[in-house]
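Extended Data, panel c. Modelled sequence:
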Amino acid sequence: AADDDTAELADCTRFVEERLMAVPRPREPRPERVLVLGWNRRAPLILREWGRNAPPGSVADVVADEDGATVRAACDTGDADWRCVHRRGDTTRPETLYGLDITSYDSVIVLGRDPRPGEPPEEPDNRTLVTLLVLRHLEQRTGRELPVVTELADDGNRPLAPLGPGADVIISGKLVGLLMAQISQNRHLAAVFDELFSAGGTQVHLRPAADYVEPGQEASFATVVAAARDRGECAIGYRSHADAGRA
């Protein structure tokens, strides 16, 4: 809804078709592989938060020109369920990324380095954009489009980012500003954001429709919502196959 005062509450029970609700299937967690390109002061926190929810046996490969001891110290959380592997290299150089088995990763995180004394303020984003250009070329060459999350400092650089359909861009300063603006309007939202952004809090996932309704059958979204509710989940939307290529 556009706002809380435009939402209309209604009983949609009559739209729920229980015969179309799928039987819950246990999900077997499998180890994940994440590729982190670049390093900055936020990288240790990102890795620790990712590691808290990573399935056992998961691996985070970090490619950066940062000293290996710094990266290993940041990853040394005492949690034996996942491990961090450091590969020293300049992510703006094509040969660095060409030496990776890019198709073996489940997702990629691209971080801009912290500003260095004497260098232009736009330099971190410039390096990030070059890294994205090389990564995009690899995706096209291998035919595998990876989920990519990129951090940029300047929102003006977003249109320049060569990203695939499954990529997201986070403007670090803008994100914090939007968060504070929301809380300033409604202080009760602070608890909601704390729940959403914490490692052990509520999470947002993309699930196949067959997890909730029988495949090959036309079902109402109310049926999907009801199936999710019965599992302690909340269905907040869906994406059709027709729109998947344009998302």
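Residues 22 and 70 are 48 Å apart (CA to CA). This feature is highlighted in the accompanying rendering.
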